[in-house]
């Protein structure tokens, strides 16, 4: 089972799946609460110069022994960085993977999440036996195939100064110990708050309190990326799959909670739809309905987190012979 969640993590996990026997699923622990930004003008952003992936790379090395080396130099021009990529591709051994960020909205015939443009996105590239053609591997969108070199280069250059790229040598992939998986889960699990819902509620409340047509219209750009961020909530399914392998739960049990994850994502879709309607019509009366959908999202997610922790407790007792500590109590939802 493969789920689109986070383009960088999809690339990293695909390398693990293709190069070793390690279970990649623990790497998704905590992705449901992965970092995002709220810009100075109050917009949700899944990509920002203030966000760093270094913690993800550190965790990747810790779990699987694979180090990500940055080949993209922010001090160089976009054109010079493309030249560096070309040089790496010329000398690319079979076990080396080259990751690059590009604006996928610039690639012909490729979809983007929520139809966004620009759409910063990580995928992997390598040479073919034709100079004008590259092999493109996009695990997040479950697509691989040949693409015109000029199209891919144009999409890379479209990122301008915000580009990024990494290389990973995967000659030997390690498997994390059960003790490490246990520690990693507890480090990444945050039951006390649901930050995405909190931030959306704060953005909506500020617009409603201001009350002006301009403030309400700002909800359109402010929450434009909400549906992209909501996709990360599907990461709960990886945790549930991982723990149920030990606990022996039925497929129906898994589907019950997978449906709750789907319900959670649907509440964000509803909230986004309402925000667009408020922004375009100025109907402040819809704000209450929008906030109610966020309350529902908060309630659903707390229930999912309780179930994930309960399954973690069963897994821990089965694998390590010790129960999990009590689940920390959630923080009070801000008014």
TrEMBL record:
Reading the lineage from the top rank, the first entry is Bacteria
Name of the featured protein: Petrobactin biosynthesis protein AsbE
Q: Which organism is it from?
A: Paenibacillus albicereus
